[in-house]
Design a protein that fits this description.
The complex is a heterodimer. By secondary structure, chain A is an all-beta fold. Helix content of chain A is 0%, strand content 51%. The chains are: A mainly beta, B mainly beta.
Chain lengths: 113, 109
C-alpha cells in the first residue's frame, strides 16, 4: 500500500491564481480530511468527507472547495489564492469510527505571494 | 465547541529521562489521538485511545475519562524522540478532530 499520497510537495502561487492539491489513498478508508498547519495555531480542519459523495465543512473552510467523487481521491481546490492561505496542508484518512488511527500524507507547503 | 489543551508547550530533557506530556480536553470528546511530527516532516499516528492505557515500545499513552485527561509517556528518552507531539480529540459521530497546539520535545544527548 502506498498509504496517503499528497501532491505537490511544494507550490508557489500568485494572489488570485487557482490550484488543486491532490490527495489519494489506497486503503479503502471512508473518512478523508484536509488540515492546514500554521505556526502557533496547530492543525485546523478545512473540510472532511465520510464517504464518496459526502463532504462537510470544518473549522476554516472559506476559500477552499472539495469534492469526493471516489473513495480514493479527495482533492482540495483553492479558487482564488490569497496570502492568508500560505500554510502547510495535510491530507489524512482513516476508517470511519473512533477506534481507527489516522494516516497522514507528507504535506504540501504552499506559498502565496 | 470541543477544546484540547496541551502542556507543556516546550520540553527539554536529557537522554534517558522519563518524559510526560499532558492533554486535557472538554466535554464532548470521546476518543484521543496522539501524533508525532519530526521537524519538517510528516505526521505519524502513535496511539488512538478511548479508555485505559496503550503501550508501544518505549511509548505509553493513558486516558482518564472522568478527569478528561490523557498523558503520553516516553521512557528512556533518546535524541531521536525529539519531535512535536500533538494530541487530538475526536467527538461524536461526525469525526471532527480538535487538535492541541503541540508540545515541542528536545532530547539532548
Amino acid at each position: 500500500n502506498a498509504g496517503v499520497t499528497q501532491t505537490p510537495k511544494f507550490q508557489v502561487l500568485k494572489t488570485g491564481q487557482s490550484m488543486t492539491l491532490q490527495c489519494a489513498q489506497d486503503m479503502n478508508h471512508e473518512y478523508m480530511s484536509w488540515y492546514r498547519q500554521d505556526p502557533g495555531m496547530g492543525l485546523r480542519l478545512i473540510h472532511y468527507s465520510v464517504g464518496a459523495g459526502i463532504t462537510d465543512q470544518g473549522e476554516v473552510p472559506n476559500g477552499y472547495n472539495v469534492s469526493r467523487s471516489t473513495t480514493e481521491d479527495f482533492p482540495l481546490r483553492l479558487l482564488s489564492a490569497a496570502p492568508s492561505q500560505t500554510s502547510v496542508y495535510f491530507c489524512a484518512s482513516s476508517y470511519y469510527g473512533n477506534n481507527s488511527p489516522l494516516h497522514f500524507g507528507n504535506g504540501t507547503r504552499l506559498t502565496v505571494t | 465547541k470541543n477544546e484540547v489543551e496541551q502542556s507543556p508547550q516546550n520540553l527539554t530533557a536529557q537522554e534517558g529521562e522519563f518524559i510526560t506530556i499532558n492533554c486535557s480536553y472538554s466535554v464532548g470528546i470521546s476518543a484521543l489521538h496522539w501524533l508525532q511530527q519530526h521537524p519538517g516532516g510528516g505526521i505519524v499516528s502513535l496511539f488512538m485511545l478511548s479508555s485505559g492505557k496503550k503501550k508501544h515500545g518505549r511509548l505509553i499513552a493513558t486516558i482518564n475519562i472522568q478527569e478528561k485527561h490523557s498523558s503520553l509517556h516516553i521512557t528512556a528518552s533518546h535524541p531521536r524522540d525529539s519531535a512535536v507531539y500533538i494530541c487530538a480529540g475526536c467527538g461524536g459521530s461526525n469525526y471532527k478532530l480538535t487538535f492541541g497546539k503541540g508540545t515541542l520535545l528536545t532530547v539532548n544527548p
